[in-house]
Amino acid sequence: MLADEIDNGADEDDLFEHYRIVADKGQTAMRLDKFLNVHVANASRTKIQNGIEAEAIKVNGLSVKSSYKVKPFDVITLLLPNEPRDTEIIPENIPLDIIYEDDVLLLVNKPTGMVVHPAFGNWTGTLINALVYHFQNLPTGRSGEGRPGLVHRIDKDTSGLLVIAKTEFAMTFLAKQFSDHTIERTYNALVWGEPKDYKGTITGHIGRSVKDRRVMDIYEDGSQGKHAVTHYETLKPMRYVSLIKCNLETGRTHQIRAHMQHIGHPIFNDSVYGGDKVLRGGTTGSFKVFVENNFKLMPGQALHAKSLGFIHPTTKEWMQFDTELPENFQAIVDKWENFVKYQ
To answer: Does the pTM exceed 0.85?
Structure first.
């Protein structure tokens, strides 16, 4: 299995445990926090309290306090960070582009080519290796893999914004927003061709391909995979390629990459989804050379996590962050604009 596949091989939902507990008919009145300590394995009192305060634990669909008395047939749902295994992470002094930081979270602008967390084939040099060097006592992530502070992820060759939690409460609070799809995420992508519709919404369940485990397929009938929704808007149509903006409702593996290929517009230089070939214009001569020179400017797909908006765990205020396109990405856009203009 390729390291890049492992880095991107699970949905954001998989970073957290999802529980649904129904109290039996003989349940005697018991405080919610005590009830959960009994019924949820390895859940500490602190984790449960953080979940209740972050409204990531609900009873019958409603937020309640720790003192709520559980009654027969109550339905209790939980979204909690997974417990870690004893996996050593090697701290590495890797520079980080931190665009914001406070006591409970930070925003990192990840460069293209950096794997987010250690996995087979990439135990060092990852964002997590850098984070554990620069920050102490980050909250832990998914069972089986060390992911301190990690609430969501982006692909190895996708650049852009990631929010990192510095406390367990912040991790749970932010995770709930991702689960509820209230996080605002905007990506910029350079895709082949010009979408027929200036704006559009792409839906379709996303799941692993049965032919190639590196690739995600779209199952429009919902027979496999998970529900996924991507909204897109064309920013710069350039005949052969287009710069588009994508807003995510869901956070599925390779969502934008798979969705854009599905509608016939693979992301430029995306080798997994067929975007690393000349798909518009001539396939010989000076045009082919022009395209191949652009491929060389950017290793991997032309996809950037440009903006991120969410409610702050402590202040409860809306925060919005934005980044510029990486220099090589912007250079490719400029080259295409000039090519079309002077052709």
So the answer is: no
